Amino acid sequence: MVKKYVVFFFVWFFNFAFSQKEITVTGIVIDARTQNPLVSVVVTIQNTAVMQLTSKTGKFELHIFPKKEQLLLLRSQGYKDFLLKVQSNLKENIDLGILQLEDTYSDEVPAALITLSDNDFSDDNSSSEMTSGLLQSSRDAFMQASAFNWGQARFRVRGLDSENAITMLNGMPMNKIYDGRPQWGNWGGLNNVLRNQEFSIGTAASNYTFGGILGTQQIFTRASLYRKGESFTFSGSNTTYLWRAVATYASGMNLSGWAFVVSAGKRWADEGYFEGTSFDADSFFISVEKKVNKRHSLNFTGFYTPNSRGKNSPNTNEVTNLMGEKYNSYWGFQNSEKRNARVKNVEEPLFMLNHYFKIDDKTNLNSGVMYQFGKVGNSNIDYQNADSPDPVYYRKMPSYFSSLYAKDQGEFSGAFTPDYENAENSKTAFLANPRINWDELYFANQKLGPNGYEPAQSHYVLYEDRTDDKTLAVNSNLNTQITPNISFDGGFTFKKLKSHNFQYLLDLLGGAYFEDIDPFYKGNLSQSDLQHPNRQVVKGDVYGYNYNLLANTLDVFTQFKFSYNKTEFFLTQSYSLSNYQREGLYQNGLYATTSLGKSENVNFENFGFKGGFTYKISGKQLLFFNAAHFTRAPSLRNTFSNARLNNNIVDGIESENTSSAEANYVYRSSKLKLRLTAYYAAIKNTSKTSYFYAEGIFDNGSGYDPTNAFVSQTLTKLDKKNTGAELSFEYQISSTFKTTLSAAFGNYIYSSNPNVTITNDANRSKDGAQTTFDFGSAFLKNYKQPGTPQQAYSFGLEYHDPKFWWIGGNINYLSESYIDVSPISRTSQFYINPANGFPFPEATSERGNELLKQEKFQPITLLNFNGGKSWRIHKKYIGLFASINNVLGLIYKTGGFEQARNANFRALNQDMTSGTPSFGSRYYYGYGRTYFLNLTIGL
Fold it and tell me: Count of CB atoms within 10 A of residue 450's CB?
């Protein structure tokens, strides 16, 4: 059916093609300050495939079909975009004369702030590392506020994760197959060479891909597009890094048809804003283009951005009250130096070769091949037959003693028996030693020998959860102008992934070896690999788990765009195939028959349609509407229920189903720029897997006597609904003063009651015992989605002096941000006593509603100031920028999650009633008062 549909559109649209006399549009582009001609400026007619680069004399010549009104766009790195209306209905050639581009050094704030912070790295949804979505925003006041004013509070546009946007490099999608998101660590430090970009917001048409409901970001690294010259950037900050230095050189296109760009940078901090968060990152970039002839060009792009970053912990209110919001439990002193146990290391170099084929003045075919490899590692401490090294382990905290209850009396709750004396002693001990005691770990790994203490079996080791990916991708995009009113875009992308996942031993911490077993089990069940039992592993060995994830994906899209005097519309279609498989390299003792070798193939076939309509009320006013419906394969991450141990596939896994619609009103004049948007998005049939230790979730009748267990939880058929409105307002009060107003009003909820499945691997120790339990529905419908403010408002005022200095400020108000709730606590099992299988007698619906009410964080008010100055000295540019964010030094929560350990009514009720919960929610905090300084020198 899909094939017939596509063929029908091809035949029908090409029948409209007809011969018509072309006209020529010419002009010369120069620098507004120096009056020198500009080479390699990208000249395009919007909503068409017509494109050309200016020559060395700044000249361009476009051949277009005559039309009443068209928009000519000039774009070059380091210069402001130039948009010009072209009246071409007279069927006569048009000479636009001299067109002047203004440089962007005078308003360096967006370029200076396009830096990847701690918020821009993503591990998982429950992490403090949320993604900001796009590397940089468009000139729209709302998108500027979203990126630079609200980003510090983890604001997400329309409440959507970055997996709903497509990030592309020279037409190649860069979203990872594993989780659907870009790996932001791959881009760190490359800000200066990633500014050549195009954006499509929401479900608007993109020339390069079908896109997502959040939009598309296309980054160009073609060497000839870069502004010729050298630049040096020096920055200082007190957020993720303390200082940054970047040097960049672009040659421009020489007489032999060669152009190249190189860039290198360094970012570093012994400690960032939060305790123990070290940062060390390098960046290297090269782009080389060879212009074969007027029709063909080849471009090679390569970059390598190794970075290492210490993480910071989410903390309970108890811990924060004792230690402050900057406290981080992941680090401690070793030999008087700070050492973080949880460090993320990213080393994934990328190489890409692109072929640009200008078939004729109206048709371009751009193709590419990409290869990316490397590693992503997340370190942590592993331990056997020893106490937890975590300084905030619940038994070490005062709340453990102040929230004690006696054993249950039959079916009734035991009495409240707090031990305040030991609670005070625990508080004193914690305040004296609130960090990881590395010396103590080393001592535990040694034994007394004839020559003193010597290495022995390690009880503590430092390891890394490693992912070594190898990705090969091929793509091709065709853009052509069929008739004066109809253009066509189409393309495909094929990706092949081999992802090696394993546990890697980094440091024996003074010991001699570590046993590759799980000490909670005995015999064969304790073995990580039955093929090599009872191994003693050392530094550099793989242990614990070891498997490959294999994936092949194919994405195809076609798009037709129609442009008339008063209306424009587009229709886009997509088709995709996804194939996933797990290959176990260890025969795990718990799953001896389902862990080694390849799993079944998991296949998904998906399609999508989207369209948009624009009505031009006048030359200044537009109305446009976009809508989309498509299905999408679940991420590789959520397809296997416990990939570390076995080949099991999530039961009932299905493709996700997404629908989206938006309506926009736009007003543009020389003084006023206004956008009003209303949107709707529904994402259905999503799945999510997580792991935690839960108490009191299994009853004796389940076949597992203890009611506590470390479990994996899988949610299926989880639906989300996001609705809201956006306002972007920008008014030029005078030639020097400008004011902006931005607003986001959203309502992001769960719109279904997903099914909860719990897997308890410990039951493998009993012959024939059940390991997977269906807990039924989690009643999450109408709960708020977590992780972002759902309402945000910003008001800003800027002054730009004619002598090229400026100052600005903005005040922001963000509210309606919610905690991530525990699904297992919202199932009917929550009210069941695991001891007898009957409801708790003290459980009431009123108290249950109180315990399960979703926490809403306090509103946030953020005041920011920024300013800058630029100079031109002997044809050289110098730009200085400075900003202070959160001037008032507000302490605020940006996110958090409920701990799932207390998984039944009695356990949670006792913990909360004590007044000092031992398993309270954990929270992430935003930066306090921070600064950023940036000096740019352009030669």
Answer: 5
